[in-house]
Design a protein that fits this description.
Mean pLDDT: 74
Helix content: 25-40%
Structural class: alpha/beta
Low-confidence stretches: 1-33, 490-527, 603-614, 618-809, 942-962
Radius of gyration: 32 Å
Number of strands: 28
Number of helices: 33
Distance between the termini: 42 Å
């Protein structure tokens, strides 16, 4: 995501960052007269690399291609230095050179000293590129940088070749310049249109004229396509014309003989101009939607002879071909294919502050012809035959390099080279051209292949993490499937369907991708000659997974009907099993295509009853057939043994009492209902007990409070406060001090956010001099909780009756890959959906990337993940079907709300062992478990509305009264000396702590009670800017609902001003437009770059709203109605901003929560009927997004 986010401004000034580096050998790097080839490498998307070894493959492949150096594009990420160290070490070990390219989408041109200091940090590394014995440095953008100050800070006369722009900067201080625009455009960062074209050669001329005789770093790029929708905050959707660009550009480079060239890029997958491997380790910013199964390695092969010719000063590549090869590329669908109904951008508005977002087909798609490009590199002439979807073209290719095109056709793509009537080499591409929208999307990326075929290059690991996020189809899986070609939809009479929007999309097939086309099974059910029949088959591409087991069974015995099934192997007839006397038929609602399969599978004799389970049902089913069927109820459908009723989890009712109706509470919430006087039945295999005499964990936890509401905040005499002078405050001046729209929301920023907005992993002591120099953010005052870390966790030490046995973790560890489909879905749901709540202020995404891995060896952590996912997933209406929960194409017939309780109870024994286990990793996992379960408690609290108009009965009431409160557990765990010792060097505990604080804000604001969580002062040192804002909001909540003093109010007002004027001063909106009441608008339009920025602003707005509305100086003496009206208007403006920000960032679900909190507190300040209706619509969006009760909130606006 970071890679694409950096590219928001690909714009008129260019687009990525990067410059170039040099030489693989020593002397080459020292001579400016030598021609140099660089390649742009994005550091921002490789934060998951764990050692310099992870860079070795990139370095070796680049060096083998003739690339002299990688231009390491850097932003201000927390992992930048770690990754730079890895890259420099790997480059030195592999004989490569590297250099830094500063990305000024993140760095500020005003921070010349910072840029220089970063150069100084790496300039003496062995792999650092030097030209004329000077450190070589580049940039993306950066016009306006003080070059002299940068060089002074670096302590060296840097050889600076930035991506400055003619007309925007002077060339006096630089040694050369990079031109980023390697694609033809309209001059406004989009594809040519209306007859206006600015070619790459035009850019060459502009730069060379501006530079005079200085070095010109020319771009070489193969393609450009990006397709980010509203599922990300950096939405953009356009193409530049690609076509034969790479081949043509290399020939142009040979003719013009530029002194330096830069390949754009090695690994910018988000814009589809990558020439490095898909398997190069990287985070998925969402680009996997169009890069999965789309390797570009052939383009690097194409470039190798050109690079050799370029360095030799040759004008032609023909004498530099070492190995004969054909390189081909094309798009996987034709341009006319209509994907509007399923595409992530079509009819779906998104953040368009950049002006780069277009709905539907990407802007410029008309410049992409439906052709197959074929480039040949031959030592002697030959005949190349290309068949594209049934259309064949023969080309007489000369010796040397040659390129031609073939009209693209739907179907297979075949390539062959022959001489004298004999085939020299041939391949069938692993990627067919299809008339089905891949993953429901418009995909204008290129598939690149070679003859002979290249190495296996799947997209793996974190590179697939975001593939399914935001998709509008459920048949696309986050796994490589190259070689399992997408379907071609055919008409009943034969032939391909004209471009249209088919109702299904291809399903990826598990397994490692084959390395050649010969691994492809035939996709036809027509047997070959010789009397052979089908002996192996599966579901046809694009068909429902419901057919899988049926096709696998019936195709084995020669019955493999085309349409739903495809045969993958032919052979001698296999004798079918004996008839069973069972009649099979499609279930109600299924199509006729199931009829033959169901009938054959069950060999029916008597009439079949219908049921609601997908696929087939049977009155009778004997083992002779059932052992042949690999049909699993946890995947798509169930065949019920000896019965036609749906196989569903039994409701939680007492034996003998199943016929009694559920209580009203359970009916309204669709919860299982049981009674406490009898044993409760869980689904098979459950280990939890709900006995009446069960001793529950922390049975009085709801009454546990670290600080009661009635207590006054302790004195702050021993706490450092901002030393700003304090004014005498009267009722009027206090009201004036809370003016709206402070500089935090309007001050221009130099960068979107600073490096300190990352999760810090070290917490240095703050010197007294620094404290005296500027205000610090003080900690929350210590609360006298009466807890001693030696006592143990509250409510856990007295836990005697155990719902589950307290064995060690390794006895309960699941084996991966998970075999239980339900648990696999719950884990994926946590990774894809819930983790973003936890990682809202954490750019390292610990809960998405670290916690799932750690959970593999800590069963309590994995059970906590299952618990919160089960609770959330089971209540969302979009996943509910009559048969059960349908998630990612998997039908979970047994998933219910009771699963969350079961999984939660399995976590409890681990808490008891917290003080017995000194392993840091175990303790850290306990802390993560506690905050996850606290989130589960937060969800359940929404249901525990004391004003609900129904009575709780049975186990439901008993559970409510004996509920576990995890906040005291979190407090005790974090206060433990061992935890405090870990805090400075364990990043997950830091991430968990800051999330626990945000949980406290939610609990405090919704329950109107003071926060409970408290830690010593050292925990607050080194906090990032966003976390300082979170901490401030906690303090405000403590002051308000803890009945704080007037002096504390004045301190918090000073602190609010400090935050807005200093900490948030650089947090500038991407776009801001006030609401136009004449157009019926209520909320302003405010766009921010990241979740971190909008969270910082929303927290600040919430804190200011409380301070403004609860100003004690207005309440202590009679104040004019005008003063109160001013306060009310101020709060209304803050609330409108809060809601506007939430509505403008639909991908950030917690933003809606913050808006709902504000409405709950101050919704009654609004009297205008249109504003109240608008606020109600926000509450409804909040309800629909989270499926949580909001009855009382909605009643505010009735």
């Amino acid at each position: 995501m970071l890679g694409a986010l950096r590219k928001l401004a690909v714009g008129a000034l260019a687009t990525a960052a990067a410059l170039s580096a040099v030489a693989s050998g020593g002397p080459l790097a020292e001579r400016a007269s030598d021609r140099l080839v660089f390649c742009h490498f994005m550091i921002g998307i490789v934060g998951d690399r764990t050692s310099s070894n992870d860079y070795d493959d990139d370095m070796q492949r680049a060096k083998a291609a003739g690339i002299d150096a990688f231009a390491l594009n850097i932003g201000v990420d927390s992992y930048t230095d770690q990754q730079l160290n890895y890259a420099y070490d790997s480059a030195a070990r592999n004989g490569m050179k590297v250099f830094i390219s500063f990305d000024f989408n993140w760095w500020s041109p005003g921070d010349a000293n910072g840029v220089g200091n970063k150069i100084k940090q790496y300039k003496d590394r062995p792999a650092q590129l030097r030209v004329e014995n000077r450190v070589f440095v580049s940039s993306f953008a950066g016009d306006g940088l003080d070059v002299d100050s940068m060089r002074n800070a670096a302590g060296e006369n840097v050889y600076f070749v930035p991506n400055f722009h003619p007309g925007e900067s002077s060339s006096d201080k630089i040694d050369g310049a990079l031109n980023w625009m390697g694609w033809a455009s309209d001059g406004n960062n989009k594809a040519p249109k209306n007859g206006h074209t600015v070619s790459v050669a035009d850019g060459d001329n502009s730069y060379q004229n501006w530079l005079g005789g200085k070095k010109y770093l020319a771009p070489v790029s193969p393609w450009f396509f990006t397709h980010f929708g509203p599922e990300v905050p950096f939405s953009k959707n356009w193409v530049f014309p690609g076509g034969s660009l790479l081949f043509d550009r290399w020939n142009e480079v040979l003719q013009k003989g530029f002194p330096m060239v830069e390949i754009v890029t090695w690994n910018d997958y988000g814009e589809s101009h990558y020439m490095g491997p898909l398997s190069s380790p990287h985070y998925d910013d969402g680009s996997s939607k169009w890069t999965n199964d789309m390797p570009h390695d052939g383009w690097l092969d194409l470039s190798k002879p050109f690079i050799k010719a370029y360095k030799a000063g040759a004008k032609s590549v023909d004498n530099f071909i070492d190995n004969e090869q054909i390189v081909y590329w094309y798009r996987r669908t034709l341009a006319g294919l209509d994907c509007d109904s399923t595409d992530t951008t079509s009819g779906r508005p998104a953040n368009n502050a950049s002006g780069n977002y277009f709905e539907g087909r990407p802007d410029g798609w008309q410049t992409m012809p439906d052709v197959v490009y074929v480039a040949s590199f031959l030592k002697s002439a030959g005949t190349i035959t290309v068949t594209s979807g049934g259309q064949t073209k023969t080309e007489n290719a000369p010796a040397g390099a040659h390129i031609f095109t073939v009209p693209a056709g739907v179907g297979k793509q075949n390539f062959a080279l022959s001489r004298g009537g004999s085939t020299v080499m041939q391949e069938t591409s692993l990627m067919d051209i299809s008339n089905v929208c891949p993953c429901g999307l418009y995909n204008f990326n290129a598939y690149v292949g070679t003859v002979p075929h290249g190495f296996n290059d799947p997209l793996v690991g974190h590179g697939l993490a975001s593939l399914t996020i935001g998709l509008h189809v459920s048949t696309c899986e986050a796994k490589p499937s190259l070689g399992t070609n997408p379907p071609v939809i055919t008409n009943p009479g034969g032939g391909s369907t004209p471009p249209g929007n088919p109702s299904t999309t291809p399903t990826s097939t598990p397994g490692n991708p084959p390395t050649s086309s010969h691994s492809n099974p035939p996709a036809t059910s027509t047997p070959p000659s010789g009397g052979q029949v089908c002996v192996e088959g599966t579901v046809a591409d694009g068909e429902s997974g419901n057919y899988t087991g049926l096709c696998q069974f019936s195709c084995t015995y020669g019955y493999c009907p085309p349409g739903p099934c495809k045969c993958t192997r032919y052979g001698k007839q296999v004798n079918p099993p004996p008839e069973t006397g069972t009649r099979g038929c499609p279930l109600q609602g299924e199509g006729d295509s199931y009829q033959g399969l169901c009938s054959y599978t069950f060999t029916a004799q008597e009439e079949c009853q219908q049921s609601s389970i997908p696929a087939c049902s049977a009155k009778k089913n004997t083992s002779s057939v059932s052992h042949q069927l690999s049909i699993r109820s946890s995947v798509e459908y169930v065949i019920r043994q000896a019965d036609c009723r749906p196989l569903r989890a039994r409701p939680l009712t007492s034996p003998g009492d199943e016929e009694k109706p559920r209580c009203k509470r359970c009916q309204q919430k669709d919860l299982p209902c049981s009674r406490p006087s009898k044993k409760t039945i869980f689904r098979h295999g459950a280990t939890a007990r709900f006995d009446k005499d069960q001793k529950w964990v922390n049975s009085s936890a709801r009454q546990f409070r670290v600080q009661t509401t009635g207590e006054t905040s302790p004195s702050n005499e021993d706490v450092e406060s901002p030393p700003s002078p304090r004014k005498a405050v009267t009722a009027s001046t206090a009201a004036d001090a809370t003016s709206s729209h402070s500089s935090a929301y309007s001050t221009p920023a130099e960068t979107p956010h600073s490096a300190s907005d990352q999760l810090q992993t070290s917490y240095p002591q703050i010197s007294e001099a620094l404290i005296a120099e500027r205000p610090i953010i003080p900690p929350i005052s210590h609360l006298d909780s009466g807890l001693s870390p030696q006592i143990g966790l509250p409510g856990i030490a007295s836990f005697s009756a155990q719902p589950v046995a307290s064995q060690q973790d390794d006895e309960h560890l699941r084996q991966f890959p998970l075999q239980d489909v339900q648990e696999a879905c719950l884990l994926r749901y946590f990774i894809d959906e819930i983790s973003q709540w936890f990682d809202l202020c954490d750019e390292n995404r610990h809960f998405q990337l670290v916690v799932p891995v750690k959970a593999r060896k800590h069963s309590h952590l994995l059970n906590a993940i299952f618990a919160v996912s089960a609770r959330h997933l089971s209540r969302l209406p979009q996943y509910k079907t009559p048969q059960g929960i349908l998630y990612q194409g998997q039908l979970l017939t047994k998933l219910g709300n009771h699963d969350a309780v079961e999984y939660m109870l399995k976590c409890i024994p681990a808490f008891r062992r917290f003080h017995e286990n000194e392993d840091d990793d175990f303790r850290e996992s306990i802390i993560a478990t506690a905050v996850i379960l606290r989130q589960l408690e937060e969800i359940d609290e929404e249901d525990e509305d004391p004003d609900d108009d129904y009575n709780m009965t049975g186990d439901d009431e008993y559970l409510h009264e004996k509920q576990i409160n995890f906040m005291p557990i979190i407090n005790a765990v974090l206060r433990d000396p061992a935890s405090q010792a870990m805090f400075g060097h364990r990043s997950l505990i830091q991430a968990a702590y800051w999330f626990a604080l945000r949980q406290e804000i939610y609990h405090s604001f919704t329950r109107r009670k003071p926060p409970q969580l408290d830690l010593p002062p050292e925990y607050w040192q080194g906090a990032s800017n966003v976390n300082k804002t979170v901490m401030h909001t906690v303090q405000v909540a403590k002051w308000h609902w803890g009945r704080g003093t007037d002096d504390e109010f004045l301190r918090l007002m000073d602190q609010q001003s400090y935050l807005e004027d200093t900490v948030l001063a650089k947090t500038r909106p991407l776009f801001e437009k006030p609401a136009d009441k004449r157009q019926g608008e209520i909320f302003p339009t405010i766009w921010y770059t990241s979740h971190i920025e909008l969270t910082s602003i929303q927290q600040s707005l919430m804190a200011r709203s409380v301070l403004v509305s609860e100003n004690p100086y207005l309440k202590q003496q009679p104040s004019s109605r005008a003063s109160w009206r001013k306060v009310e208007n101020e709060v209304r403006m803050l609330m409108l901003d809060l809601c506007g920000i939430a509505l403008c960032h639909p991908s950030s679900a917690p933003a809606l929560v913050n808006a709902a909190i504000g409405i709950q507190l101050y919704g009654d300040y609004f009297t205008d009927q249109y504003e109240r209706l608008a606020l109600r619509s926000v509450v409804e969006k909040y309800r629909d997004a989270h499926a949580w009760p909001v009855r009382r909130l909605l009643e505010m606006f009735t």
